[in-house]
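Workshop exercise sheet. Pairs work together: one partner reads the sequence aloud, the other fills in the structure field after running the prediction. Swap roles for the next sheet.
Pair: D.N. / O.F.
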Amino acid sequence: MKTYLITDPAYYGTTPDHLESALDVVYSHNLPDFSLYRDKQTSEYSTLAQTFVTISREYKIPRILLHDDYALAQELKADGVHLTSTQFEDIAQAKQLGLYVIISTHTHEEAVRAQTLGADAITYSPIFPSPNKGEPKGLEDLKEIVDKIEIPIFALGGITTEEQIKAVEECGAYGFASIRYFI
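Structure field:
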């Protein structure tokens, strides 16, 4: 089961020093297979993303991703990009830059579309109740989408316990993504 850490400024801070400190704490306890820098509010995204990439490289995180901005991901030599569910048209451009592409999906149709357009993996969410994320899909729906598509699926949304991780693994998910699990 692959692990995918997603940052949130509420837990990782909004300055390079705070981000570095938070990553040092988190990475010293749990090294994820994938790690995503996500901050939808800052005007200093590129500076913070550079700090994130540098620290994540020091800890030898296998796949380092940036949120949304595939050109910046290439510029900062991140391994990939995590596109939003409104960026399906950007999959091909990100792939042309040699990036590993994960895209957020919330329906079976979006998951199939992501696969058809060449995404390397998807997140499918929310599986469990998660703050401000709507009605959870549940494990049965996760199992259905795992059986439907061939690219890796990261279960996302409300995954904070070992029992939940085991449950999504039993559904056949490639991995799980979480903000709060890693804190």
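Discussion prompt: The domain at 2-180 is CATH 3.20.20.70 (TIM Barrel). What would you look at next?
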